[in-house]
């Protein structure tokens, strides 16, 4: 589930929320799983991974990560990303282009406080995406951190939210014989320009 | 469904096929829908979209597209792409980095011949991703092409397959408390180097 906090009422946001409700009504699994693609400047490579979209707050789309992870480095050196959603239950794809930056520390703190002790133990214990010798070692680090945690344990600086603000949306709806409907919203000078694309 | 044609028997391919069979047994919807991310050199932007993966032939992963589309231009100017799969039925994510190129004309011809007349009419009639005034116009172009088609209609030069060959795989399996299992295969001098990543 995605939490909406005073979401923007601009046209693509209204359309997104309407599709979200429709997918929810059709029992879409993993509705908050979205793919985020980034550019690795050093390697001249595109990389993509799924993240859990937790909030849409005004026009910020927020998920959480380790700030020392490869994707965090990529966001830092190339702040443009692509987000992609496919809800099979309503045969709808949503393509987004956006700028990404770190979420405010207050917001990250609050989210961390609301999570289970176990999830936070993992966030603290894991050097995300670094090589490790065995899965047993992952579990050992996790349990050690879990045992050391106290009610005073706060969010570590190396973990928190990323917010992206879209400047481009495509709403794609699949139809028979590939007669797919494609509607684009592109931001130009604070206005959303709408147009249709050929399938 | 993905068609396997003498698929590679290298280790990540074996693992992929085993997960594919598991997802299939768990009635995974849209099992052939994969996201392909590319780099738009001109705009310095990452873009992503879903495609239908049709074949894995030896080590070529093949889908079909319009060769004049924006993504085709992007593949031409930056042949490195990222492919991403998420099968919710088995809580498994597969991250791939690959090089992409046009599939052989013979393979594209054969695939085109095996498709329905309607799908081919759409492939011929649509200037993929170009702006159009209305959806009625899309339908008009489609029906006009459909009526003009004869049994001799062949694949147009501007439509065909793209093949990508992976050089990097990550198999990610979700577990409780985010204790996810992550296994990477990276190609070095024709060998696949295997290692584990922290969650």
Search tags:
homodimer; 199 residues; alpha+beta; Pnp Oxidase, Chain A; ten-stranded mixed beta sheet; 5 helices; 28% helix; elongated
Summarize the structure.
Chain A is of the alpha+beta class and about 200 residues long. Chain A has helices spanning about 10-25, 70-75, 105-115, 115-125, 135-150; strands spanning about 5, 35-40, 45-50, 55, 60-65, 80-85, 90-100, 130, 160-175, 180-190, 190-195. Chain A starts with a strand and ends with a strand.
Characterise the protein shown here.
Chain A is an alpha+beta fold and 199 residues long. Chain A has a single domain, classed as Pnp Oxidase, Chain A (Roll). Chain A contains five helices and eleven strands. The first copy, chain A, has helices spanning 11-25, 70-77, 105-113, 117-125, 135-148; strands at residues 3-5, 33-40, 45-52, 55-57, 60-66, 80-87, 92-102, 131-132, 159-173, 181-188, 191-197. The longest helix of chain A is centred in the first third of the chain and has 15 residues, at 11-25. Chain A is elongated and about 55 Å long. The interface between A and B is large, with 55 and 55 residues. Strand 8 of chain A pairs antiparallel with strand 11 (191-197) of chain B, so a sheet runs across the interface.
């Amino acid at each position: 589930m995605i939490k909406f906090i005073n979401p923007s009422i601009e046209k693509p946001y209204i359309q997104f929320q309407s599709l979200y409700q429709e997918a929810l009504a059709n029992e879409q699994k993993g509705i908050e799983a979205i793919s985020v693609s980034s550019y690795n400047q050093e390697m001249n490579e595109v990389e993509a991974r799924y993240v859990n979209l937790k909030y849409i707050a005004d026009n910020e789309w927020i998920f959480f990560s380790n700030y020392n992870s490869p994707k965090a480095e990529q966001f830092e050196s190339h702040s443009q990303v692509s987000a992609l959603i496919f809800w099979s239950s309503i045969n709808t794809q949503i393509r987004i282009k956006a700028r990404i930056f770190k979420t405010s520390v207050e917001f990250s703190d609050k989210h961390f406080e609301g999570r289970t002790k176990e999830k936070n133990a993992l966030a603290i214990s894991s050097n995300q995406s670094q090589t490790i010798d065995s899965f047993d070692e992952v579990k050992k680090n996790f349990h050690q951190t879990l045992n050391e945690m106290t009610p005073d344990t706060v969010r570590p600086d190396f973990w928190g939210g990323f917010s992206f603000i879209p400047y481009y949306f495509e709403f794609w709806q699949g139809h028979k014989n590939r007669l797919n409907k494609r509607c684009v919203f592109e931001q130009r000078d604070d206005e959303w320009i709408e147009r249709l694309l050929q399938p």
